[in-house]
Amino acid sequence: MAAPFLPAIDPARCTACGRCVAVCPPHVLSLHPQGWVKTAALDDAAGCTGCAQCKVVCPFGAVRMVRASGRDAAATAFTGKNRS
Questions:
Q1: Which end of the chain is more exposed for a tag (fewer CB within 10 A), N or C?
Q2: How far apart are CA 13 and CA 40, in angstroms?
Q3: Which residue segment(s) compose the domain that 38 sits in?
Q4: Is the predicted pLDDT of residue 74 greater than 70, yes or no?
Q5: Looking at the DSSP assignment, which residues form a beta bridge with residue 66?
Q6: In the predicted structure, residue 52 carries a pLDDT above the cut 70
Q7: How far apart are CA 80 and CA 21, in angstroms?
Q8: How many CA atoms does the CB half-sphere of 78 hold within 13 Å?
Q9: CATH number of the domain within which 54 lies
């Protein structure tokens, strides 16, 4: 069963501290290079349980939970663009 909410990471606020990655029970988050910096990203939306531990542990407020209405819901939460 898919999670009703998925984490969306704001790249402007993410410092790549890795706390969200470390606390993720199903291990579906990782750090991805974005040019010279890294940012957290959801790798496996289907594997996400929607527990929101990543949101709770983020000291920078870079993670918010968004309704999983489509495959790109979390990816487009901050850009408003479809990345397909």
A1: N
A2: 10
A3: 5-76
A4: no
A5: 6
A6: yes
A7: 24
A8: 15
A9: 3.30.70.20
